[in-house]
Structure formats: C-alpha cells, structure tokens
Write a structure and sequence with these properties.
The chain contains 10 helices and 2 strands; from the N terminus they run ααααββαααααα. By secondary structure, the protein is mostly helical. The chain has 2 domains: 76 residues, Arc Repressor Mutant, subunit A (Orthogonal Bundle), CATH 1.10.10.10; 133 residues, GntR ligand-binding domain-like (Four Helix Bundle (Hemerythrin (Met), subunit A)), CATH 1.20.120.530. A two-stranded antiparallel ribbon has the order 1-2. The two termini are 33 Å apart. The N terminus is likely disordered.
C-alpha cells in the first residue's frame, strides 16, 4: 500500500499547492491516516516512512512535522511522534463536527453529482459490503473514505473541504480501533445505499439525511 504515491492522491492535489517530494508524501500520509491505516498510540518513524516511500529523511521529516501542525500527529516527548489517542469526549466532538460540516458539504456537492458518480459510489459501496462480509477491516476503512470523499470533492469547496479533511485525520485512527474492537459487521445499517438511492430520486434532503445518519452510526458505537 505504501509503494509510492498513488495517482488518486496526486489527482486531488490543490492546484495552488507546490508539488514537491514532501507535499506528495504529506498527501499520501494524510490519506492513510483518514483511512485508518495507523492506530492510536502508534509511533511514527521518519526513517521507516522515508524507506517505505523511497525518499530521503528530509521530505519525510517535513511531511511528518506538517501533520503535527495539523493535529494529526503529536509529540509524546521531545523525540517521539505518535498517532494521538482521542478521549471518548474528543471523539464524540469530532463526530458531532463531522455531522454538521459533512451534511453541509454534501448539500453543496449535490448539484454536481452526475449519473457516472452515482455508479462509482455504488461500486465503492459494493466493495464495502464485501469487506464487511469478509471481515476485511482495511478494505472497509479504505472504501468508507473513498465513498465519502468522492462526494465531498464534488462540492469544490475551498473552505469546508479542508476542515472536513482535518476532522478525518483525527477520526480515522480512532474509528479503526473501534472497528477492531467491535468488528466491521457492527456497521450494520447501509446508509450508503440510502445515499445512492436518494441521489437516483434527485432527493437532496433525503441524501443529506442519509449522510448525517451514516455519521451518527459512529456515535452509536460509543454508547
């Protein structure tokens, strides 16, 4: 998975951001964090990151420090960088913020969602359902990220999209832990299907409600 920087990551690069080794690595690591590829409390080794992506230590160090400034990683002491462990209260706050921001960004994206996008979302959701059946947590987390951000990027929002991405950087690792504890099958209600069915009916309000319900499901797992 960590073999180079994916085309998908490069494709979603901000046209106004520089295209350097450190920015490409930063984008790749952001996606992995959002997909839950790192666990809470995991130590991040700059040397290992550099080796995985075939870069020198300098761009790896810059990318990791950038993630620290975004709150996606933290210093546990003067030398060790880790994935933060969110408290129950903090995780609930992140989900609450997600529900509000992502409902609005979905509303903005609605008018830009074409038939081809609906088909793409259905393919992604089919892969998610297969991952749940097979207990494939990695594939589930990856698919869930792809499903949501396929929609959110269609908003073309230069304000809300970066905010949503910051929330997912915090959400991804903790959601992975919850799914590992309860199993991907705990995500039982297929709100993604409700999303695509609402899109087929051209029902914006039902579409936004389904997005909100999908996020609320994560809150339910907290009890």
């Amino acid at each position: 998975m960590a073999n180079g920087m994916t085309t998908a990551v490069t494709a979603h690069r901000d046209a106004f951001s520089p295209d350097t080794a450190s920015t490409r690595l930063h984008r790749a690591l952001r996606v992995r964090l959002c997909e839950g590829d790192f666990s809470p409390g995991e130590v991040i080794s700059i040397r290992r990151i550099a080796a995985e992506y075939g870069t020198s230590a300098m761009p790896a160090r810059e990318a990791v420090r950038w993630l620290v400034t975004e709150g996606a990683l933290v210093f546990s002491d003067s030398r060790k960088i880790i994935v933060p462990e969110l408290s129950r209260e903090r995780f609930h706050e992140v989900l609450y913020a997600r529900q509000n921001l992502e409902t609005e960004i979905s509303r903005q994206a609605f008018v830009n969602i074409a038939a081809a996008d609906i088909e793409a979302l259905e393919r992604i959701d089919a892969g998610i359902n297969a991952a749940i059946e097979q207990g494939d947590l990695v594939r589930y987390m990856r698919g869930n990220y792809q499903f949501h951000f396929h929609i959110y990027r269609l908003s073309h929002s230069r304000v809300l999209l970066p905010l949503v991405e910051i929330l997912w950087l915090q959400y991804g690792p903790s959601m992975r832990y919850i799914c590992m504890r309860w199993g991907a099958s705990s995500i039982a209600d297929d709100h993604h299907r409700e999303v695509t069915e609402a899109l087929k009916r051209d029902d914006r309000e039902a579409f936004c409600r389904a997005i909100a319900a999908d996020i609320e499901q994560g809150m339910m797992l907290l009890g």
